[in-house]
């Protein structure tokens, strides 16, 4: 059995639709993991390192404490 879905101005097979949705989910997960990792690393920086990247302790703390799903 062959299924098609109408999306925008073209037909997309369910296989392609699934692959696209799966790819978007993987990309979103990768972005969330990147945010978690970099925010945790930001919390580990000392005052000298924060000055090197142009952030105050308060800015680093605010960014580092954000949940990984927030931009």
Please tally the helical runs, counting DSSP H or I stretches of 4 or more residues: 3
Question: Radius of gyration from the CA trace?
Answer: 20 Å
Strand numbers in spatial order across the main sheet? 1-2
The biggest sheet, with number of strands, parallel, antiparallel or mixed sense and barrel status, is:
2 strands, antiparallel
Kindly summarize this structure in a few lines.
The protein is mainly alpha-helical and 71 residues long. It is built from three helices and two strands; from the N terminus they run ββααα.
Topology, pairings included?
Blueprint: E1 4-7, E2 10-13, H1 14-43, H2 47-52, H3 57-64
Antiparallel strand pairs: 1-2
Helix pairs in contact: 1-3
Structure description:
The protein is mainly alpha-helical. It contains 3 helices and 2 strands, in the order E-E-H-H-H. A two-stranded antiparallel ribbon has the order 1-2. Helix 1 packs antiparallel against helix 3. The chain is rod-shaped and about 55 Å long. The termini are far apart. The mean pLDDT is 85.
List key phrases describing it.
71 residues, mainly alpha, two-stranded antiparallel sheet, 62% helix, 11% strand, rod-shaped
